[in-house]
Design brief:
The chain has two domains: about 130 residues, Helicase, Ruva Protein, domain 3, CATH 1.10.8; about 80 residues, no CATH class. By secondary structure, the chain is mainly α. A three-stranded antiparallel beta sheet has the order 3-5-4. Strands 1-2 form a two-stranded parallel ribbon.
Length: about 270
């Protein structure tokens, strides 16, 4: 008698982590294990996230996610899988990026409500909203516990920013020779007499007007990112500023909803150092 039967066996990890790892107790149940692997490319990882993230058609219509923002989410997971702070045995599954995308959209939806706007675009400053997605989906080794989960999450985001930045722009030199200009010299010098405030709650036009006030920043984008579409170019403006702060060329300070970028030589009065 022909039978068409499928058996499904599951087992929780001995130290339950909610990450879906294939574990040895399965062998006791079915005598076999199925070996899986992480996505080997950003493109494939993006496909998985876009397929699995629970985002409604209305949200997709109201919130535009630039391609670079999608790539950055995946970069965070790639960085976590190679981080000295993260327990490799527990792993970093696609659940991290799926949750991160959902949180990112939720943060943008909150801005729509607060600004009474119909549409918005994901910004780099929105990425602090994915920190709970990171801390809730990774297990830390002792060194990571010493740093603290929130701090490790910020380190992973910063590392992902630098990785993505260097795919588009020249590397930022650690040391600069006196009298020798780099691609970022004029941009950094602009902040000696100016600053940029990026408010999370600003409408898109106001937000991008602040970025465009920096003419050397526009020049850097035109030289190295002119092939990208408009939304990705705006995202690159933030990417450049963030990368310069990570490399200690600019200073970034913040309040609950505002980020201020200025020279590292400027005394701080209103904002505390980040």
């Amino acid at each position: 008698m022909p039978l068409d039967i499928q058996f499904v066996f599951t087992a929780n990890p001995e130290d339950y982590t909610n990450r879906g790892s294939i574990v040895t107790p399965l062998k006791d149940r079915i005598g076999s294990q199925i070996f899986t692997h992480y996505p080997k490319s950003i493109a494939l990882a993006r496909e998985i996230t876009e397929q699995e993230a629970n985002i409604s058609a209305a949200d997709k219509s109201a919130v535009h996610v630039p391609n670079l923002a999608k790539d950055l989410i995946e970069e965070v997971a790639f960085e976590a899988r190679n981080s000295e702070y993260v327990d490799a045995k527990s792993g970093v599954s696609a659940r991290l990026t799926i949750s991160a995308m959902e949180n990112l959209i939720a943060a943008a939806k909150l801005r729509l409500i607060e600004t009474e706007s119909e549409n918005t675009t994901i910004r780099l400053v929105d990425f602090l909203s994915i920190i709970p997605s990171i801390t809730g989906k990774i297990e830390l080794v002792f060194e990571g516990e010493q740093e603290g989960a929130g701090e490790v999450a910020k380190i992973l985001i910063d590392n992902a920013i630098i990785t993505q930045f260097e795919k588009i722009f020249p590397r930022i030199p650690k040391l600069e020779k006196e009298g020798v200009k780099t691609p970022y010299t004029d941009l950094v010098n602009w902040f000696d007499n100016n600053l940029i405030q990026l408010n999370y709650t600003d409408k898109d036009d106001e937000f991008y007007a602040n970025l465009k006030s920096n003419s050397p920043l526009i020049s850097v984008i035109e030289e190295y990112a002119s092939q990208l579409d408009k939304n990705d170019q705006f995202f690159c403006m933030e990417l450049v500023l963030w990368a310069l702060t990570i490399n200690d060329k600019l200073d970034k300070s913040q309040t609950e909803n505002t980020y201020q970028f200025d020279s590292t030589h400027v005394d701080k009065h209103f904002y505390g150092n980040n």
